[in-house]
Amino acid sequence: MPIRKVMKANEAAAWAAKLAKPKVIAAFPITPSTLVPEKISEFVADGELDAEFIKVESEHSAISACVGASAAGVRTFTATASQGLALMHEILFIAAGMRLPIVIAVGNRALSAPINIWNDWQDTISERDTGWLQFYAENNQEALDLILIAFKVAEDERVLLPAMVGFDAFILTHTVEPVEIPDQELVDEFLGEYVPKHAYLDPSKPITQGTLAFPAHYMEARYTVWEANEAAKKVIDEAFAEFEKRFGRRYQKIEEYKTDDAEIIFVTMGSLAGTVKEYVDMLREKGVKVGVAKLTVYRPFPTEEVRELAKKAKVLALLEKNVTFSVGGALFQDFSRALINEKEKPVIVDFILGLGGRDVTFKDLDEALGIAQKALAGEEFDEVNWIGLRKEIL
Amino acid sequence: MAVRKPPITTREYWAPGHAACAGCGCAAALRLATKAFSEAMEEKYGDPNAFAIAQATGCMEVVSAVFPYTAWKAPWVHVAFENAAAVASGVEAAWKKVGRKGKILAIGGDGGTADIGMQALSGMLERWHNVVYLMYDNEAYMNTGIQRSSSTPYGAWTTTSPPGKLSIGEDKPKKWVALIAAAHQIPYVATASVANPYDYIRKMKKAAKIDGPAFVQVQCTCVPGWRAPPEKSIEITRLAIETGVWPLFEIENGDFHNIKIQAPGGGAKVKREGGRVVAIEFKKPIEEYLKLQGRFKHLFKQPEAIDQLREQIKAMWKVLGVEVTLPKPEE
Ligand SMILES: Cc1ncc(C[n+]2csc(CCOP(=O)(O)OP(=O)(O)O)c2C)c(N)n1
Ligand code: SF4
Q: Which of A18, A252, B85, B325 could pair with B281 in a Cys bridge, judged by C-beta atoms 3.0 to 4.6 Å apart?
């Protein structure tokens, strides 16, 4: 029987790691995800998780050690956030290029400067071009479940890419919620043992990994990462379906809420989706036709699902906790690309909000809604809007 | 007829067909290292192949692993420039977990070890991973075209330490990474040279058989980097030993009071007290070493710079507990 425990997302991530039984974990502490390696080291210390825990001297070495372990053919896991993920940046490309299915739990946190430990998505968003799969959790249960799903997808032979699972700093990492911990046997059946065919360091069948490639081969190698990302789309759907069958919880790349007759659809990720769902409920009571779409999977980008979603609305209002300077948010680019050649398409309005842990209030959402309604009415509007700015301190 | 046993295994792990320059001392160093490793694994585990290699970006990496070819007949992984030690940590942890017997060899150049990889190296040593870290010291960043590293010797020309009106070339003394490694009090630290293969092989074997971390720093020539003729590679590195420029020593368990010094040869007079080397009177001046290499050519116009280098070498030997006399060339 699965047990229910009240826990923080950090603990849920550690539990997911425990259930996935990685053989090597290498991690370095950083707020807000410090509790993940702490909890894992407790599991290891108590003999509840039979793994090597490498207490590395930096995140750069954490991910490097994970690459080494994964290249030696074992399941590996780490956790980090913000500057820690940024310090891993160089090696993230290498992990994906070497097709190593490492999983990272990320407590989504803002990047310096100014130094800020609170939530936004800039850390993982900045790694969107590394080739890693990216999942975003709305709550602590999702943090646990998505890590298990991430292993499943990452290790699938059609994919073989590393994956990161983001959950919002403090809003989730440090907030307790009831979380169902699935049965170990069911997880074992769901994940199976990881037996690599392409990455192992076995003296009886030596292979060379991580070579240099001249222009004659480099593009093809990069293309295989592209192909694997494409292949991951189907594999993720399959993994979601299997997960639902075994554990009863349903996931979709884009989860829709009250979108069917919506004129304006808010699009967002992570825990903000919960806030916006509440907001939409409130507006619906007043007869405003709004809905929410939550991206659970950000990479590979769910282009098809976005196109389907776009057919339902006149305005897509993107709520983003990240910035791509001089452009808007990252989602704005992704959605624009997905829809640019569609015959009929909604208007897209981009909102940057909640950076560095700034609360996103209903008042902020009202501000966004006002601009989206202008767009709906065919009036002039700004494409990119910073919401909740304290203009008086600028 | 009696057949003599070869002095080292005929097994090859660093195979012919790599793209190193003719006369590359580092290529020789890697070949010997893997052979020594193999012998040690055979003696320790009964399996000569019981090792894997994690290597840093650098000249020896790019000449050995150009897709779709490889010069490696051992399991080998390259990840980046600064993280061979961290990657090796991960490989070792994985092997431990799956119960695979054997040892990991991490390989980095002086840049990947003394500079950018220093933190990962220190972490790996301090965490006591069962890894031998081999630093092949060609005394500059060769892969990017001969830039100075902190292991470049004083006075040497490199593309980022060019001699000029205001410069004698590299203006800082060489950083001795072996001594830094020894400060971690790991079981075994040694310096070696390709010009003394027996000593080098013995040390690599010893390092490979130890349970726990070991560090070996081997000096090896780079033909374009040292601006030296390829056929003189071994002669040059031998002169480094015989003139006192390159000390051969071993430090066990961080015991700086009992450093083992290997005889330098070249007519040097070694004075011992209670079995310990306390003084060495070198017979060959360091100029003999310097003059064979274009990278030091400009120093001969500034003899004070060579004297300065002599003082630095003396100071380094002093750290090893040895008073040395370094002669000047006869006028
Ligand atoms: C982070 C990073 N910075 C710089 C480089 C460029 N780079 C590659 S190898 C190298 C120098 C290698 O020098 P060393 O370790 O001494 O080895 P050698 O080339 O002499 O064999 C440099 C600077 C890199 N690959 N990665
Ligand atoms: S450039 Fe130097 S280190 Fe590189 S292969 Fe040639 S001789 Fe060896």
A: B325
| pTM of the model as a whole | 0.96
**What is the pLDDT at residue B1?**
72
Q: Which of A70, A94, A208 sits opposite B72 (nearest CB)?
A: A208
Taking the C-alpha atoms of residue A31 and residue A108, their distance in angstroms, rounded to an integer, is: 10
Residue B331: the pLDDT is 67
What would the pLDDT profile of A290-324 be if each residue is shown by its tens digit?
999 999 999 999 999 999 999 999 999 999 999 99
Nearest of A225, A121, A227 to residue A164 by alpha carbon:
A121
Beta bridge partners, B60, equal none
DSSP β-ladder status, B276-281 and B269-273: antiparallel
DSSP 8-state assignment for residue B114: I
Distance from C-alpha of B137 to C-alpha of A145, rounded to nearest angstrom:
49
Q: What is the DSSP letter of A344?
A: S
Which tokens in the block code for residue B145? 């075209």
CA distances to B56, B115, B208, B281, B306 from B159, rounded to whole Å, are 22, 17, 36, 34, 20
Report the distance separating Cα A332 and Cα A295, nearest Å.
13
Instruction: Calculate how close chain A gets to B217, using CA atoms only, in Å.
Output: 22
The answer to whether the beta carbons of residues B112 and B83 sit under 8 Å apart is no
Q: How much of chain B is in helix, strand and coil states, percent to nearest 5? A: 35, 20, 45
Cβ atoms of A187 and A49 closer than 8 Å:
no
A24 to chain B: which residues are within 8 Å by CB? 90, 93-94, 97
User: How many Å separate Cα A249 from the centre of its chain?
Assistant: 18
What distance in Å separates the CA atoms of residue B190 and residue B201, rounded to the nearest whole number? 11
Q: Does A52 touch chain B (CB under 8 A)?
A: yes
Closest by CA to A23, choosing from A73, A74, A71, A68, is A74
Element (DSSP H or E) covering residue B238: helix B233-242
Terminal-residue alpha carbon distance, chain A = 55
Distance (Å) from CA B135 to ligand 2 centroid: 15
Taking the C-alpha atoms of residue A247 and residue B77, their distance in angstroms, rounded to an integer, is 38
- At A13-68, the pLDDT tens digits run 999 999 999 999 999 999 999 999 999 999 999 999 999 999 999 999 999 999 99
Contacts of A58 in chain B (CB under 8 A): 119-120, 123
| 3-state DSSP assignment of residue A391 | helix
Helix (H, G, I), strand (E, B) or coil at B189: strand
Strand-pair category, B214-219 with B249-252: unpaired
CA distances from A270 to A255, B35, B169 (A): 11, 54, 56
